[in-house]
Design goal:
Blueprint lengths: L1 H18 L17 E4 L5 E4 L10 E4 L9 E3 L7 E3 L1 E3 L5 E4 L9 E7 L8 E5 L10 E8 L5 E4 L12 E4 L8 E4 L1
Antiparallel strand pairs: 1-13, 2-3, 4-6, 5-9, 7-8, 8-12, 9-10, 10-13, 11-12
Length: 183
């Protein structure tokens, strides 16, 4: 009986994983089917996988919010909440990752999409004290890099340019490092 139960659990786990595509960011109790857009408070633009790419190493940018799959992401825990997470795109199944880290003196790092198993793919979602825009179901958060929590996902100079490559930059509490996360 115990062997059958263990076999059944393994089969369910495999079938459940395939039901969610290639995503590998699921953990127990997570709401892996929930999809979110991530909009910057300063610019009003959304995190966007440039040109809808599915290739590892391609840039993560900001773009006018349109809600397409290249602007929809999953977290490996159910929102609202705070904690360590991957941020995976629902179209490419890849995660947001900073590149070029040379230690604590690194000034900034560009963001690309890469494998969710990379140690660099971990972020800490830290809920902000203020909520999202009135009338919207959004959580306001800072996205700190887990490997060096002095870096946050940042819109360079709070520029409103579509296609601008996002970066991991020293956390400073500015609105260009504050994000509304909504379904």
């Amino acid at each position: 009986m115990r062997t059958v139960s263990l076999f059944a659990l393994c089969a369910l786990a495999i079938l459940g994983a395939s039901a969610f595509g290639r995503s590998n960011v699921a953990i127990a109790g997570a709401q892996v089917t929930a999809q979110y857009i991530i909009r910057n408070v300063a610019t009003g633009k959304c995190i966007d996988i440039a040109n809808g790419s599915t290739a590892a190493g391609d840039p993560v940018a900001q773009y006018m919010c349109h809600g397409g799959q290249n602007q929809r992401f999953r977290f490996d825990f159910a929102l609202p909440g705070s904690g360590r997470t991957h941020i995976s795109n629902v179209h490419s199944y890849l995660c947001i990752v900073p590149t070029g880290y040379q230690g604590p003196s690194t000034p900034r790092m560009g963001l690309v999409q890469s494998s969710c198993t990379a140690p660099e793919a971990n972020f800490n979602l830290v809920r902000a004290t203020n909520k999202g825009p009135t009338g919207q179901h959004a959580e306001r958060a800072v996205l700190r890099w887990a490997l060096d929590s002095t870096f946050c996902i940042d819109v360079p100079s709070a520029a409103r340019t579509d296609g601008l490559i996002l970066q991991a930059y020293r956390c400073h509490g500015g609105l260009n490092q504050l994000w509304d996360i909504a379904r």
